[in-house]
Design goal:
The structure is a single chain. This protein is mainly alpha-helical and about 130 residues long. It is built from 2 helices and 3 strands. A 3-stranded antiparallel sheet has the order 1-2-3, with helices on one face. Strand 2 and strand 3 form a beta hairpin. The longest helix has about 60 residues.
Length: about 130
């Protein structure tokens, strides 16, 4: 009987040691996961900022400081990039962003802006119906 009690105590002690080791390993894994998550987030943010800087530099080189979407002609990627800048500038000057989007094929669902009764898409410069821009 004493031998059985001693073995049971050893089993209990080994179980506590194993649980303690597992808890330590889980805490270390959680810490590593958090570090990796933060690094990935920071890397993504830095890459996004680099992309924005490269876009701005490309737009500046091609179009100067004037944000004229029409100057991009049929370069729809440039029109969309310029459209973002025009949208921000127009909103700052009193235009309102509408809950509707341009249905133009190349506008990629750009939000429409309005001022009074006038409505326009900042990419195709049409009214948003997909036909006139």
């Amino acid at each position: 009987l004493q031998e059985a009690d001693r073995r049971l105590e050893n089993v209990d002690r080994m179980q506590r040691i194993t649980e303690s080791r597992l808890n330590g390993a889980m805490q270390a894994a959680r810490g590593d996961l958090e570090k990796t998550k933060n690094k990935t987030f920071n890397d993504a943010r830095e890459n996004h900022q680099r992309l924005k800087a490269a876009e701005n530099q490309m737009l500046q080189a091609r179009f100067g400081s004037e944000n004229n979407v029409g100057a991009a002609g049929d370069d729809w990627e440039a029109r969309r990039l310029l459209g973002k800048k025009v949208l921000a500038k127009q909103v700052m000057s009193g235009w309102t962003v509408m809950p509707e989007y341009c249905t133009g094929r190349m506008c990629n669902f750009t939000p429409l802006i309005s001022k009074g009764r006038f409505v326009k898409c900042v990419v195709c410069e049409g009214c948003g119906n997909g036909n006139d821009g």
